[in-house]
Please model this.
Amino acid sequence: MADNAQGIKVRQVTDIHANWSEQGDGEPGKFSLQFVLDNGAEEYVIRPVAQDTKVLIKLIQSSESLYFDTERQVLIPSALK
Model:
């Protein structure tokens, strides 16, 4: 079992920055989402494919609050609308 004294494992997502970057002429671009955790205490970046990004954005928009498990890299939406 993990020792909780080593640090916080689940943090609240307090801000999200989205990014798309070109990968070359005729090539698909790449998306990234930066999660700002606990008002800047930590940050985490994911690089989902376009289809997953679309689903994630809908999930984020339909959630009252978001949490991120930094140990397991799991996004946890709360109170879905």
The chain has one domain: 8-80. Residues 17 and 34 are 5 Å apart (CA to CA).
